[in-house]
Structure formats: C-alpha cells, structure tokens
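Following up on my earlier thread - several people asked me to post the actual chain instead of describing it. Fair enough. Here it is, all 98 residues.
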Amino acid sequence: MSEEKNYIGIFEALSHPIRIKILKVLSKGERYITELAKDLEISRPLLYMHLSKLEKAGLISTYIKHFDSPPYVRKFVKAKKIKLVIDLPELIINVEEE
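Reply from S.P.:
Thanks for posting it. Predicted structure:
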C-alpha cells in the first residue's frame, strides 16, 4: 500500500500545469527560487506551494548555497532524474531513480 501511495503522490504532483512547467524549466538545470519564480511569472509563495508538492513526491530536491555578495544565501531547486514506466492494461507502475 505504501508503494501505491508513492505513485499517487507522483501523479498528484504531475496533475497541475504549473508543476509541469516547473519540471520543464528545471530539466534545463537548477535554479534559485527568485529566478524560478521570475521564469514562471508567479509569486514566490505560490511557487513554494508547488515546490512542496513536487518535493514530497520525490521529483525535486532543494538546497541552500552561500555567496560572498548579496543575496548571501540562496535556496536552489533541482529536478531529480527518474524514469516512470506505466504498463497498461494491467496498470503496472515502475518508478526508478536514475
């Protein structure tokens, strides 16, 4: 059952067009939060809501980098490389991290 819950989380995360756009942008490389919000033309609070769902589903990861000039701390986001295979009609789902 926990495996099934994991799949449901992935499909829920992929069910919103903004989250698909986020993954498309991140497929080209990591971004820091402000940059990603500007690329998508959405507010940072809205972006954080969508990132939370993607991270909970295991599709992205976030981390913090420190810099010598302002802004001194930036939160970065990157997409995880996964392979999702759906075999119909039996509905066999396989998710593999690459």
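Strands lie at 31-32, 60-66, 73-79, 82-87, 92-97. That should answer part of your original question.
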